[in-house]
## 1
Amino acid sequence: RPEQPPSMTGKAHQQLGLEREEPTARKVIRLLYGNLTPWWFCGTVLTYYFLITLGFPHVGKDGPVMDTHIPFAFLFVVGCTWNLYHTPSHGAWYATMHRRMGWLAMIMGFWSVVTGYIYILDGSSHAELGTKVLMMAIGAMQLTIQSLGLWYVRGVRWIEMHMSMMTYVFYMSGVLISVNWLPKMVTGEAYHGHQATNWMFLSFCVGVLCASVAVKHNKLTMTLWDQ
């Protein structure tokens, strides 16, 4: 395991904040100025657009499981997008928010997968078998990567690997699903049958590619503090 950069604890962050209080205008600038990248911006906009235009309209129409799945998925994305945009190195308040939003993403991510599994297995989903298998495989990968990300930060405290795992979670679970629904968002018609399965597999490849690019970029640009 490679050596980690010098750490700064949450307490040290707080002490630093007490010693130098920032003006309100600078706090606003710091809030807006985060880890902005083209793939984070495009992935975030696409994912929120998908959830708002295609996700939430299903609430109240597809049964109680979907009624909970969509809000869980939305809060999961909120936690992921915030934590990739603002990391603990941005200051004491951001270090605290990173932990809170991280737990939000962990819990909501777990329940979004569970409700997604229930939706598939109880017969509510009308997708073909291949699509269902891919969706369940993606859900299993999400839970596995989430667990690894938690272990890397809480167990062995390997912050670089924690960042990598959580980046993969966002792009392979949030952005990937949004890319899968691009045909519906663009043309108004979703793919069906084998075409839907093939497109989902392509979406998975896009998610892996975006995640790999994002991880490589973050390793070069992010300051990784041990919380």
## 2
Amino acid sequence: VIANIRGGGEYGPQWHQAALKELRYKAYEDVEAVAQDLIARGIASPAKLAVIGGSNGGVMVGNMLTRPVASKLFGAAVCQVPLLDMKVFSKLLAGASWMGEYGDPDTDDWKYLRRHSPYQRLRHDCLGIPEDGAQPDKIEGWVCPKVLFTTSTRDDRVHPGHARKMVRALQEEAKGLAPTVYYWENIEGGHGGAADNKQRAHMWAL
């Protein structure tokens, strides 16, 4: 199923602009709505439903892993060359060029960026780790779906540090709430994650 969520370019400029910056949450609500519809119609069940996305789609998958509704809709996820820490994205590699899409985390834009920054959502909202000295409202009953993260050491657009730190938090801080977390980092390949068809086939076989 291709969701064609708001924020994409499938239906023209207005469709794209409908989920920019402070409206980004609408894209994630759309993914949830598609998943809920598939389940309601008996086409899939949470145990057999997975979500996959890369780059900008990696932010989406990160949100599906950490949103209270979405994390119960999917049994598995694949998060490829993802943006995940929206607090620092603008300082890493090509990140500054995407501030028109997401916003500037060093301004008041952080107030809405924080709500859909997967790394902060994981550590503070899902795991209850204090944020700036304050105790957050922890999401009760959260468990991370099975997840595979893929990235490339030579990605020149999205820094592999996004995936690395998310995996570290899941493996070291989640304490049993993320029972199945896989990670694959290719030392070649750039933002596509693979340098040739053989590597690409290996990546998709994972």
